[in-house]
Structure formats: structure tokens, C-alpha cells
Amino acid sequence: MSVVQIKKSPNIRSFGPMRHGTTSIGDALREFMNKSRLKPRLTEVRIQENWEKIMGKTIARYTQGIQLIEHKLIITTSVAPLKQELTYSKDKIIKLVNEMLGENVVKEVMIH
């Protein structure tokens, strides 16, 4: 039986503390997403995934669609009383969605 010795390649660095001027992968990804054209779409998906938590089960059940286009949250429902309730609650919806996102993304709500 032979013993294999593994030599450290000069191209492989150990993962020690970050050096001055370096960025963590998480920070680099956050920066990329903030500058990317994907951010609005990812924000829309986050709103859709959290819609029930934000607005409750009943409203979520009767909401057919949620879109985010240029800081406008477009909510689609075919239930007339819900349309009316959402229309009266636009400021509250903006506040709740922005709180969930942790930033002021939604400036306007449209009900269709």
C-alpha cells in the first residue's frame, strides 16, 4: 500500500480573514442585484411570495395577479367588494409592502 502526499497548489489560497479592499460573495451579489435589471422582477416575486403574509388569507385567495411595474403595484381581482376594499386601503398596502421589502419600492397601487 502506497501513501499519497498531497501538495498544496500555489494557485489555491486558504480562506482566512478577508483582506482590506475585498468583498464577500454575499455583498458582491447584493451589489450586483441592486445594479441589475433583474432587481424589479425579483422584488415582484418577493411580493407575490409574501402576499398572504402581508394581506391575509382571504385577500390573497381572491387576488388573481400582482405585478410591479416602475414602482406601481398592480393588483388584479375580479371580486368587486375586494376591489373597493383595496382601493380604500392603498396607503396601507404601500406601507405594508415596503416594510416587508425593507425599502421604499412601491410608490403607487393600482387595482384592476
Describe what this molecule looks like in 3D.
Strand 1 (65-69) and strand 2 (72-76) form a beta hairpin. It contains 5 helices and 3 strands. A 3-stranded mixed beta sheet has the order 1-2-3. The protein has helices at residues 25-35, 39-55, 57-61, 80-88, 90-101, and strands at residues 65-69, 72-76, 108-111. The mean pLDDT is 86. 8% of the residues are buried. It has 112 residues and is α+β, with helices and mostly antiparallel strands. InterPro entries: DciA-like (IPR007922). This is DUF721 domain-containing protein.
Class derived from helix and strand content: alpha+beta
Our Rg estimate from Cα atoms comes to 23 Å
Strand order of the largest sheet: 1-2-3
Name of the CATH class: Alpha Beta
The string of secondary-structure elements, in order, is: HHHEEHHE
Second rung of CATH, namely the architecture: 2-Layer Sandwich
> How far apart, in Å, are the first and last alpha carbons?
75 Å
Specify the helix fraction band. 40-55%
Strand segment count: 3
- General shape: elongated
Provide a count of the helices. Answer: 5
Unreliable sequence segments = none
| Biggest beta sheet attributes | 3 strands, mixed
CATH fold type: GMP Synthetase, Chain A, domain 3
